[in-house]
Specification:
Elements lengths: L6 H23 L10 H13 L2 H25 L10 H20 L3 H22 L9 H15 L6 H28 L5 H23 L6
């Protein structure tokens, strides 16, 4: 299946993947060594905690899962529709994500699990929004689907089948920028500790403002090419 997404979605997806890469590496390097932007490992750890009867870890990990889901639910409440439409309130979601990331910094500094919960909620917001505006083609907070698409493309190439080049380009873009965000986030964390989250929090806010400005321009110039 080809990917027919407007240019602003490609730019936004790449920027958000880089932001998610920064947030997630800070979670891994922080006091809990906790993944923030996805739940696969968290769910596995929850299973292990339940098997070991570790109630404390079970509650903490359950909280991470519920916080991510709560962020996704809030995104669904705000955007309300799965159809891609420039007038949707994506900017509101991005502003809220930015505020959650800013709020998490002080909690992280005091080694409060609430910092990780707020960051997970922010990432749930982001991932749900990206899923909504792309029709489930784009995931910006984890890479399993992107690597799967690349693997499928490789299999098709080996069979001599036509390649969905735009989809593969989009997957490669998200993977590359998520990894770049990880490099940047790790370097910032080693120098500034949890203040490293100021960068993704600020960038999220700027992406939100940029979206609002672009939306207004597009609405004023409806004949402009997407």
């Amino acid at each position: 299946m080809g990917v027919q997404l407007p240019r602003w979605v490609w730019v936004g997806a790449g920027a958000l993947a880089c932001i998610a890469g920064m947030v997630n590496v800070v979670g891994y390097l922080g006091f809990e060594h906790q993944a923030i932007t996805h739940l696969t490992g968290t769910t596995s750890l929850l299973g292990a905690a339940l098997a070991d009867g570790d109630a404390g870890s079970g509650l903490r990990l359950s909280g991470m899962i519920l916080a991510f889901m709560a962020g996704a639910a809030i995104s669904g409440l705000i955007i309300q529709d799965s159809a891609l439409y420039l007038g949707r309130r994506y900017g509101v979601v991005l502003m809220l994500e930015s505020l959650l990331l800013f709020a998490s910094i002080g909690l992280f500094k005091h080694q409060q699990i609430a910092g990780a919960l707020l960051a997970a909620m922010a990432c749930g917001l982001q991932n749900a929004m990206a899923t909504t505006y792309s029709g489930a083609v784009v995931r910006t907070t984890h890479l399993s689907g992107m690597f799967t698409d690349l693997g499928i493309g490789l299999g098709h190439a080996l069979r001599g089948m036509p390649l969905p080049r735009r989809r593969l380009m989009l997957s490669s873009l998200i993977i590359a920028l998520f990894a770049t965000g990880g490099v940047i986030g790790a370097a910032l964390f080693r120098r500034f500790a949890y203040d490293a989250l100021l960068v993704p929090a600020t960038l999220t806010g700027l992406v939100g403002f940029g979206y609002v400005g672009y939306r207004q321009w597009r609405l004023a110039h409806p004949r402009a090419q997407a």
